[in-house]
Amino acid sequence: MAVTVETLEKLERRITLTVPATDINNEVEARLRKLSRTVKADGFRPGKVPMSVVAQRYGYSVQYEVVNDRIGRAFSDAAREAELRVAGAPRIAQKDESPEGQLSFDATFEVYPEVKLGDLTASEVERVSTEVTEAAIDRTVDILRKQRRTFAQRPAAEGAQETDRVTIDFEGKIDGEPFSGGKADAFQFIIGEGQMLEQFDTGVRGMKVGDSKTFPLKFPDDYHGQDVAGKEADFLVTMKKIESQNLPVVDADFAKSLGIPDGTVEALRADVKKNLEREVKFRVISRNKAAVMDALAKAAELELPNALVAAETDRLVESARADLKQRGVKDAEKAPIPAEIFKPQAEKRVRLGLVVAELVRTNNLQAKPEQLQAHIEEMSQSYEKPAEVMRWYLGDRQRMAEVEAVVIENNVTEFVLAQAKVTDKVLPFDELMATN
Fold it and tell me: Taking the model in full, what pTM does it have?
């Protein structure tokens, strides 16, 4: 039987579904009879509850279930017959008038859009690359040294210097009044490592144990504490303790402490370089992928299904609540998060998802088994026990689905870069690593 599909607006469609009332009634009666075998009611033995009592108590809910089941199947059959790609769930509403002996419903829904991919050869994409330099290796080794440094109390006659760990009491006032977060006792930080504002570092340099001094400090206009941003405070600081740092020497013992088997400095630097190159590769891929996705979104024309945007918006809201809960926010699941603030992001994600799916479908860019295996192997190499990490991924469908999504995006990136107008740019190591 032919299905009549009514076009309402853009992607919205409507189908009228009709089912025989006798089919509904027969199914409801059959389910109620089955239910009567196990239902319990005061004054009746199990399995002996009269059908009239069962119908009175459960009739409405059973009829609701039956109608939903039958209409759901009817809608699926109609959509399949009409070769429709339905986006989201349909809205079902019973019609006021139906043919004799029938129940009629309107199913209103959206369909997936036609995605028109533009000429990718006209798209402009900046492709970055980065080299792991000796200077980058030196800085990483310095970080490893700092992670294993020790501190010793500085002689009383010496003042606090750069890289010293100091313990202080302080109290800040604005216009003579204390402010929230402006006071602490036995507060510890390392001078010159960015833990405190530069003016604060400057203020404590040269102080000796037992010294007290007051100095002014102007908070930046973009300071994270909005109550004090842009304001000037006076801080009273008392030096309690000064410790100088002792960095380990980069030698065989240091290399062995980091798990380098042969314990040579050369092997340590080679291991650092290998890890940096792996991190650089993933960051470069991520950055180039983002550039490709932006170009794809600009090159495509399509309408967005409201149902998909709404579903993605809801997902982002729930993700935000989960993040708040993880941060320890009380009643995070009830947090009043306005959905509209996520709508632009949801629209962008849905748009890009549809464009990528179309590109994958039309150009056979699906993830191949060997690509999935290679990607997991590469990721696992940054862990102490790669084999366990691989089993962790391979043993879970959800995790494998996430890996598959990444590999598909990589395939799309390579496909677009092979066609687009590409401008190559060498990005300094520090600049690449500074990006999230």
Answer: 0.71
Is residue 318 included in any domain, yes or no?
A: no
Nearest to 427 by CA among 147, 94, 183, 133: 133
Residues 279 and 356 in one domain: yes
63, 24 contact by CB (below 8 A): yes
Tally of domains within the chain: 3
For residues 252 and 263, the answer to whether their CB atoms sit within 8 Å is yes
Report d(CA 154, CA 244) in Å as an integer.
6
Indicate the residue among 111, 126, 161 that finishes a domain: 111
pLDDT digits (tens, 9 = 90+) for 379-417: 888 787 888 988 998 888 999 999 999 999 999 999 999
Q: What is the dihedral of CA 205, 208, 210, 213, to 10 degrees?
A: -40
Judge if 284 and 353 occupy the same domain.
yes
Range of the domain at 286: 266-299+342-434
Please check whether residues 167 and 277 belong to one and the same domain: no
Q: For the chain, what percentages of helix, strand and coil (3-state, to nearest 5) are there?
A: 50, 25, 30
Closest listed residue to residue 115, CA positions, set 300, 352, 314 = 300
The answer to whether 105 and 71 have CB atoms below 8 angstroms apart is: yes
